[in-house]
Design brief:
alpha+beta; disordered N terminus; about 850 residues; disordered C terminus; four-stranded antiparallel sheet
């Protein structure tokens, strides 16, 4: 037996859609000679039932039509480029954990597209997928300090580190939700454009701008890997996309495609070799024409109020030693401003295995200092001591620790300085006044020119001080410094500020006031004018004693004068020494006469190292600004495209009208007038020419044109309108268009010029039309297909009901008369006949 099944109870309260048994083999016996009227009715039923079975299948119609299959090729191509984006972005952090998280996020976005295409409510599913992406992104913080509840603060901390540090950036917990959300949205957008909007090529290239942007911020050791991550997935995506069909749209065999893919893989091997060759030749990542590493930078002040009060590092020092702890210097003087020296890779030297930095001072080293980092923050710099002679590193020291040969700063080349890292410094005692009196300042021939740079025009006050000072040596420097220190009053914040010759004159003989930074900067200029190599050192001075431990906090920030002496190196001068009778060793607590700064002199936690000192956000902003003109051009082209298309449409219509004769010219003239009215949103776009007269103000030309068009299209002039009629219609149409535009406000005219209303819904399809592709056309076509399939299903259900009605005795009049005519014997007011399919049964209300 064959069962035609239909969902019971759906618009069938009387049970007409109950399963009906069909005799086996009935489909083969569609027609034969009937034995009697009842047999004739059964044959008619079986024939109709066989037809229904052939149309809808033996399983019967479903409640809703099946959805179209999900296009896998556009999704696969979008997935490949989205995964490429994830791999390249992971290179910024040099983290495979970031790469794997990004790949998972991109694939999750593609899976969301597949779910959206497999539902009958795509808009609801899209909202659900986007909400799910947000939830999953926040869940990536599970296990991180603070967890998902501290999402804003954790993300902000990660962004701050990314702004300050140079790639590879540490993959902090705050980057997880950002990476997941961005790549999931990128994957979903690329997949939806490719599969949902039926624009596979556009969907494939959607992630590429982000790929190119991320490729600019890769560490040097990851550039080859990034090139592979960009090239190979893109090649595979294009192969998947353009192997979808053969010539003429013929579907290719899977085995053939696999063979072709294997051949392409063979050719990809030499391509990969060329990629490696180009990378080694700096072809793909050429050296920049301008390297910002080679340009000095101005320091940026960081108020202590913006820094979290915490222990930065702890020290174990001998009695009487309190620093200073140097983290950088300002030795470039340019246009009245002290700047950070240029950062170049050649100056970052590996620390010797024996740790000896200066053999002469190492032999006299008697002070032993131990430093342990605690919470230096987003800084690659580890504090050191200006006159260090030997660095002793533990066995597990980072391999990328380097020492700047110019500034004496120790740092890691990438990422943050390690936390909980302990290292030791040996140094000789600071020279006392007697030793400095015997010391020889470093001559100009042995020091960089930057260490002696100063304004060429010395003010009178400086000339007086230098004229009265001793001729040379420490005595001269000490005299010059005290001419300033003995009379200056510290006032104001200690932020870096320009220091000009006139400002030094004012501090000597004018207001005699200055900020802590200005006091140090003025000392440097006075020392350089006196013939000494001098610079500003910054970092921390002194320490706090907490729980028996010497610790340094942000409020220990300070800046000081450093002067270069033979045999001693850069000697820090912090306090106020009596002339020629002072020791430069600092006590545990800073001297009362030392002026402390209430601001960090420079951005202490700003990395100044390799390979570029440009923060990530500035580089991204620069790339965005570079791309902005192209984006604006594309936007302008998009906005002005309707103007161009409308002009091309007008030209095509005019050519068509001339080819069709006067009647075609009249039709084109009136279509142009009505399409302009549609763009201006004036009147009913579906009204006839005569009806449209009531939609606008009364106008003689409009009335004449409407009647001329009506007569030429379906009136007395339809057979043979003249050329004069066509010329009159064109003149009237142009006049009406010009006056209609002039009567509208400027903003309405601009919107009408940019409108696509007349392209999407022209007044008539009988003349040539042109239009821009609608982004939602594929979705509309898919919805129309589903609606058509639903209508066909409804028709099939109605056919089945009619077949079953016949099987239950509701025969057409032809069959009833053939069986002997209607009888008054059995009568039913409606529904089924009590006697079944009998010749005497009659239904008064059946279907």
């Amino acid at each position: 037996m064959t069962i035609l099944d239909d969902p019971a109870g759906l618009d069938d309260p009387a049970g007409l859609d109950d399963p009906v048994e069909v005799p086996a083999g009935a489909a083969a016996e569609v027609w034969r000679e009937p034995r009697d009227a009842a047999d004739l009715a059964d044959l008619a039923y079986v024939a109709d039932l066989a037809y229904v079975a052939d149309v809808v299948g033996e399983s019967g119609p479903a409640l809703l039509p099946p959805l179209p299959p999900v296009p896998l090729r556009p999704l696969l191509a979008a997935a490949l480029t989205s995964v490429s984006t994830a791999l390249v972005i992971g290179g910024i952090f040099d983290s495979w954990a970031c790469r794997l998280l990004g790949v998972f996020a991109a694939l999750a976005g593609i899976a969301g597209v597949a779910l959206s295409l497999r539902t009958r409510r795509p808009a609801l599913m899209q909202i659900t997928v986007l909400v799910g992406i947000g939830v999953l992104a926040s869940l990536t913080l599970v296990g991180a300090p603070g967890g998902p509840s501290h999402l804003p603060s954790v993300v902000n901390a990660a962004f701050t580190a990314g702004r300050l540090l140079h790639p590879p950036i540490p993959f902090d917990a705050g980057w997880r939700p950002v990476i997941f959300a961005v790549l999931a949205v990128i994957g979903y957008g690329a997949g939806w454009i490719g599969a949902g909007l039926d624009r596979p090529l556009l969907g494939t290239i959607v992630p590429l701008p982000l790929v190119l942007l991320a490729s600019f911020t890769q560490p040097p050791n990851g550039q080859l890997l990034v090139a592979i991550f960009i090239f190979m997935p893109l090649l595979a995506a294009l192969g998947v996309l353009f192997s979808a069909s053969g010539v003429g749209g013929e579907k290719l065999d899977l085995a053939f495609e696999l063979r072709r893919a294997s051949k392409a893989a063979v050719f990809a091997v030499p391509a990969l070799g060329l990629l490696v060759l180009f990378n080694s030749a700096s072809f793909l990542f050429p050296a920049p024409a301008f390297n910002p590493d080679n340009k000095p930078q101005k320091p940026h002040a960081v108020p202590l109020s913006s820094e979290v009060d915490r222990v930065l590092f702890s020290v174990d020092v001998p009695p009487g030693f309190g620093g200073p702890w140097r983290t950088g210097v300002l030795d470039v003087y340019d246009k009245g401003t002290f700047e950070l020296p240029a950062q170049t890779a050649s100056r970052l030297l590996p620390i010797p295995k024996d740790g000896v930095l200066d053999a002469g001072r190492a032999a006299a080293a008697s002070l032993h200092v131990k430093i342990t980092t605690v919470a230096l923050g987003n800084s690659p710099i580890l504090p050191t001591v200006p006159t260090q002679a030997r660095l002793v590193l533990p066995p597990g020291a980072p391999s990328d620790l380097r020492l700047d040969s110019r500034t004496g700063v120790m740092r890691v080349t990438a990422g943050r300085a390690p936390t909980g890292f302990t290292y030791e410094i040996d140094l000789p005692p600071y020279p006392d006044s007697d030793q400095l009196l015997a010391a020889t300042p470093t001559p100009k021939t042995s020091a960089p020119a930057d260490d002696f740079a100063a304004p060429s025009a010395m003010p009178p006050g400086v000339q007086r001080v230098l004229r009265d000072a001793p001729p040379s040596g420490w005595a001269r420097l000490d005299y010059v410094r005290h001419q300033l220190l003995d009379h200056i009053t510290a006032s104001g914040a200690g932020a870096p500020a320009p220091m000009t010759a006139s400002r030094v004159e004012d501090m000597l003989d004018g207001s005699r006031k200055g900020t802590p930074f200005e006091i140090v900067a003025a000392q440097v200029l006075l020392a350089r004018w006196a013939g000494f190599a001098a610079r500003i050192g910054y970092g921390f001075n002194g320490f706090h004693i907490e729980n028996g431990q010497d610790v340094i906090r942000p409020n220990n920030a300070a800046q000081w004068l450093e002067v270069d002496f033979d045999r001693y190196g850069w000697v820090p001068l912090l306090d106020k020494p009596p002339r020629a009778d002072t020791s430069l060793d600092n006590p545990k607590q800073p001297d009362k006469d030392v002026v402390a700064s209430d601001q960090v002199a420079v951005e202490l936690f700003l990395p100044l190292g390799l390979p570029r000192p440009v923060p990530l956000f500035e580089l991204v902003r620069a790339r965005l600004l570079q791309a902005l003109p192209f984006v604006l051009i594309l936007l302008a082209l998009q906005l002005t495209a309707p103007i161009v298309v409308r002009a091309l449409r007008r030209r095509r219509r005019e050519q068509w009208g001339r080819a069709m004769g006067p009647r075609g010219r009249i039709a084109v003239a009136y279509a142009e007038w009505r399409d302009l009215a549609t763009d201006l949103n004036v009147g009913d776009p579906f009204a006839t020419p005569i009806e449209y007269l009531a939609n606008v103000e009364v106008d003689h030309d409009h009335t004449e044109l409407a009647w001329l068009v009506s007569r030429a299209m379906y009136g007395d002039l339809a057979a043979d309108p003249s050329e004069a009629d066509a010329a009159a219609a064109e003149e009237l149409s142009l006049s009406l268009q010009r006056r209609l535009r002039a009567g509208q406000p400027t903003q309405i005219r601009v919107l009408a010029a940019l409108s696509q209303a007349s392209m999407r819904k022209p007044y008539t399809d009988e003349v040539p039309n042109m239009g821009l592709p609608a982004p939602g056309a594929a979705v509309a076509r898919r919805r129309a297909t589903i609606a058509g399939e639903l209508a066909r299903r409804r028709r099939r259900r109605r056919l089945r009901r009619e077949v079953r009605d016949r099987r239950l005795g509701f025969l057409p009049p032809l069959f009833r008369h053939s069986a002997g005519g209607p009888s008054a014997g059995g009568h039913s007011a409606g529904g089924r006949s009590a006697g079944g399919p009998s010749a005497g049964g009659h239904s008064g209300g059946g279907r």
